[in-house]
Amino acid sequence: MTSPVRPSLHQTILADLRGRILSGEWPPGTQIPFEQALATRFGCSRMTVNKVMGELVSAGLIERRRKAGSFVRRPQSYSAVMEIADIRREVETLGLAYGFELVRQERREAGPADQKRLGLSEPHPILAILCRHFAARQPFCVENRLIDLTVVPDAAQTDFAVESPGAWLMARVPWTSAEHTIRAAGADKLVASALLVAPGTPCLVIDRRTWNSASSVTAVELTYLGEAHELVARFTPSPGG
């Protein structure tokens, strides 16, 4: 019987440090122990630790700051401007564990601000939802969504603590057109608390509206930390050149 191949010390150290980062045990901003301290902990040479740290830098998990040490990086993500992306897929594309939390779900009559967001000319019954998405247990995105219940009545009986509203809508409600408005904004108190940052922290906000024919289905405001998110658009020349 062949004995199992034991991982090398290099592989052991890499798996240990990578696991602490991806599990959220070491959240973004955490300072990694110095190389000499890690070499002592694992009983190896500093050169071995240095190679491991280099791999973590190449993988985008840590960053080295001159004279300060190494720190866990905040995951970099992107959204395609011309797509309606699933946030879970965004997180899992980064190789991180996805999490979701419903903060508030409220049925109400649309007020003036709600009507403006949904493009309504008169009050409709709506569902207002606030939730958070996580990457490796760290806040990734705040979702502030309105759903028009005259267009999507089934949403009123849905418990969005079980399934995120974006994923639920994409799976069940057809849409024919969408509009994205992208802006920069400082985190207000609500967003700052949800993302665990200081008020005023630069954020990137995607305002999206989707329609089914002439009816507005939903309006959603997705807020990401500005330093950790970028937008990508791919397009071709118009027929006129």
CATH architecture of the largest domain: 3-Layer(aba) Sandwich
Shape: elongated
Poorly predicted runs are: none
Q: Output the radius of gyration.
A: 22 Å
Major sheet details: 6 strands, antiparallel
Instruction: Label the structural class.
Output: alpha+beta
Count up the helices: 7
Head-to-tail CA distance between termini:
68 Å
- The CATH homologous superfamily of the largest domain corresponds to Chorismate lyase-like
Beta-strand portion reads 25-35%
Number of strands: 10
CATH topology of the largest domain: Chorismate lyase
Give the class-level CATH name of the largest domain: Alpha Beta
Helix content: 25-40%
Overall pLDDT score: 85
Identify the strand order in the major beta sheet.
4-5-6-9-8-7
- Total domains, how many? 2
What is the H/E string? Answer: HHHEEEHEHEEHEHEEE
How is this structure best described in words?
This protein is an alpha+beta fold. The chain folds into two domains: 64 residues, Arc Repressor Mutant, subunit A (Orthogonal Bundle); 156 residues, Chorismate lyase (3-Layer(aba) Sandwich). It is built from seven helices and ten strands. The strands form three sheets. The protein has a six-stranded antiparallel sheet with strand order 4-5-6-9-8-7. Strand 1 and strand 2 form a beta hairpin. Helix 1 crosses helix 3 and helix 2 packs across helix 3. The longest helix has 14 residues. The mean pLDDT is 85.
